[in-house]
Amino acid sequence: MSRAKTKAEQHAATRAALLREARRVFTATGYADAATEDIVRRAAVTRGALYYHFRDKRALFEAVVDDVARGIADRIDAASMPAKDAFDALLRGTHAFLDACLEPPARRIYLIDAPAALGWHRWREIDGRHAMRTLRAGVEAMLAEQPDPALSPEIMTYLLSGALNEAVLWINEAKDEKAARREIDRTLPLLFERLFARTRAR
Amino acid sequence: MSRAKTKAEQHAATRAALLREARRVFTATGYADAATEDIVRRAAVTRGALYYHFRDKRALFEAVVDDVARGIADRIDAASMPAKDAFDALLRGTHAFLDACLEPPARRIYLIDAPAALGWHRWREIDGRHAMRTLRAGVEAMLAEQPDPALSPEIMTYLLSGALNEAVLWINEAKDEKAARREIDRTLPLLFERLFARTRAR
DNA sequence: TTCCATCACATACAGACTGTATGTAAAACC
DNA sequence: GGTTTTACATACAGTCTGTATGTGATGGAA
């Protein structure tokens, strides 16, 4: 039926195939050790196609990172939709973030390789449109419900983001991953309560 | 006077020169884009010497990372020595950590490139002997003074480490670095107070 | 003192990989 | 219907890592 593909369709199909296989190879070997030849072979094209669609290997990786980050953010948004208050939304979002980032593509591509390959600044630019945006919204909602002039939403967002990223990697390398995850799940609500507590004097 | 160098001296001198120049080049260009030829030229040897002293480029990088991490830990230890209590020690140590990591070599080599180039697990192994060891000691001292069965020292250490690492990179990329640093300095004691607070009911 | 083994490199080379330059068939357009 | 543009494929040049081999100096043994 779709024997006769239009050019635009072919263009999109090849690009999608490159992104799909690039994600697999980057996940398996990491950015530095990924050979572009491997990617294009799996996508059933040649390196000419890759360099037609992307300026260089880094640009391909950046596109994959953006995709991965968007996927994480989507899962967070979906999970925190049915929340009853800001605290609940933050907790649900956090759990969704951990779930998503514990999967190999997100872990390897988004948490480990992206900051080094793209630079911390560029990585945070991308993340700021996705997962970090949801975290910032959660923090701001908390501070809207319980105003606390001592806490800067921006700083809290970055500190929490750093802590959560590290939590993912710690859970992943733990001897007993399930137990580690439970411990984190138990600890995080406690920390949120304490961090966002109103000053004792009120 | 030292015209006639013994073999052991020569060995140590060349190794030290390689480490010194490698640190410079890795800091300037990052691990991936650093050419071993650049390093050995500055050290006034050839690549043969490099591969005699180190198994490969990664091993050289790992040795540099270990050096950098040791330097950070030394500064933390020195800064937290004259502390009057656990809280004071944690704060002093944290400030020393920020000061040390804000310098380019630590930032680029230790915070950005090391996790990707060595793998998170290996990076944490090294860090666990240095900066993270001091942080863990600080956390454990806090929990010794104010016991809190709800807080696992290991988890608190990893979460705080992640938050502090991110704080460094955030300060570094801020438009006004001095102001960003002041904001972090103002926020951290607040967070420590709240995180390590005994449960309200006592 | 002399001989030999080992050390601490230097040199030469093979292999892999990235990016670029060029060629080309099919589609799109006028 | 002829020409231009697209979406690749192919070929090539340059760079870089790691390895294999050569070599002079040093240190120990006899």
UniProtKB/TrEMBL annotation, chains A, B:
Top-level taxonomic group: Bacteria
Transmembrane stretches, start-end = none
Q: Which PROSITE patterns match?
A: HTH_TETR_2 (PS50977)
Q: Where is the HTH tetR-type domain?
A: 12-72
Q: Which Gene3D superfamilies match?
A: Tetracycline Repressor, domain 2 (1.10.357.10)
* SUPFAM superfamilies linked: Homeodomain-like
- Is Cell wall biogenesis/degradation one of the keywords UniProt gives this record? no
Give the UniProt keywords, A-Z. Answer: DNA-binding, Transcription, Transcription regulation
Q: Which Pfam families match?
A: TetR_C_41 (PF21351), TetR_N (PF00440)
Q: Which residues bind DNA?
A: 35-54
Single GO term (MF)? transcription cis-regulatory region binding
Q: Which InterPro entries match?
A: Homeodomain-like_sf, HTH-type_TetR-like_transc_reg, HTH_TetR, Rv0078-like_C
- Report whether Transcription regulation shows up as a keyword of the record: yes
Q: Which PANTHER family match?
A: HTH-TYPE TRANSCRIPTIONAL REGULATOR BETI, HTH-TYPE TRANSCRIPTIONAL REGULATOR RUTR
What's the name of the protein? TetR/AcrR family transcriptional regulator
Query: Native species of this protein?
Result: Vineibacter terrae
Q: What is the lineage of its organism?
A: Bacteria, Pseudomonadati, Pseudomonadota, Alphaproteobacteria, Hyphomicrobiales
